[in-house]
Amino acid sequence: xxxxxxxxxxxxxxxxxxxxxxxxxxxxxxxxxxxxxxxxxxxxxxxxxxxxxxxxxxxxxxxxxxxxxxxxxxxxxxxxxxxxxxxxxxxxxxxxxxxxxxxxxxxxxxxxxxxxxxxxxxxxxxx
Length: 127
What we know:
Helix Hairpins; globular
């Protein structure tokens, strides 16, 4: 193997380039790649009920997309994962009415937010 090939493999093994070190061209290419990859995994999860990524790996893709968009807001794509949620669900999935509201901790950043979340859960269960 050539030194160049070995260098590419070791760079790939080290993980993606930090967002702060991306050029505008690299950021645009990465946003395009992430949009395609996340859409692919959304389809697997929502339409085919066959996810291939762990939740943590999927979340890391979305977090990287958000970080790049934050650093390069003028590069946000029309098909960005940040402007849509998942994909249309598989028709075989029926609608479910939950006894308690399905709430998210996605925007909780401190202990007060967690307490508020838990209080809302408890309040909805006592109704």
